[in-house]
Amino acid sequence: MKKIYSLLLAIVLSSGISFAKSYEPVPSNIKLPAKYTQEYIDSISPEYKNVSNEQLFHVALDMMKDTSGDFSRKAILGYNVTQYPIKIQFKDLSEINESYASFDAVGWKKRGKLYIYINPKHEYAPPGALAALLSHEALHQDEYNSLSEETYAWTMEATVWSEILKKYPDSNDLESPLVTRENVLKQLLEKGNITNKYIKKTVYANPGYKDLPLTSPGFEVK
Question: In this structure, are residues 126 and 173 in contact, taking their beta carbons and an 8 Å threshold?
């Protein structure tokens, strides 16, 4: 048996077969900040391999460092109520519920684990915009939701986007529908003098949230 094992090992080594984690590279038509060379992306990917095999998300998560979204980044890595990494992927949201077809993203809990599903229309969004979106969705960590929770999450998203633009101004790709969303939230944040005043009004007026309670665990009225 030992000889057979040694022979198999020799075949693997001589053939160049690798069992290393394979990643889906960032699409070539997505413009990245200069620091995100392929070498750099490959160096950060092992940290995020349990979240997604798509390096676009690895870049987005890395961009959340040193922003208000770092809390969400850590939650995605496993520092959340489930103690498991949050899986991220692009997914046709109508497969979950037909009413979700036009949503930008959905946070989901299934069999004790958390998932963030993002509408495929954002597959070519700047990673900075995805970073802002992920900072929102990672705050939803249980089966409960509320107007207060959504207000907090939307405000976090707007704040992170504002911070991302200061660090990576090229993220402001006006042809991206996700960037359009982020800029609207940023404008609401600035209109409220960097408070949630107008974001809160927008959340409370959203027909998609009309059946939500006022509060949920961990999110009180503010």
Answer: yes
Residue pair 154/124 in contact by the 8 Å Cβ criterion: no
**β-pair type (113-118, 105-110):** antiparallel
Q: Give mean pLDDT, residues 31-57.
A: 97
Helix, strand or coil, per DSSP, at residue 109:
strand
In tens, the pLDDT along 71-103 reads 999 999 999 999 999 999 999 999 999 989 999
Query: Which string of b and e fits 1-20 if b means at least 16 CB within 10 Å?
Result: eeeeeeeeeeeeeeeeeeee
Q: Over the stretch 192-205, which tens digit does the pLDDT of each residue have?
A: 999 999 999 999 99
Measured CA to CA in angstroms, residue 28 lies from 25, 38, 202 at distances of 8, 11, 36
Structure tokens at 17: 């077969």
Residue 21 has pLDDT above 90, yes or no: no
Residue 67 in tokens: 């922003």
| Those residues with Cβ within 8 angstroms of residue 86's Cβ, 6 or more apart along the chain or in another chain | 51, 75, 76, 78, 80, 114, 115, 116, 138
Q: Residue 3 to residues 7, 11, 35: CA-CA distances in angstroms?
A: 6, 12, 48
Gap between the Cα atoms of 52 and 88, Å rounded: 6
CB contact at 8 A, 200 and 175? no
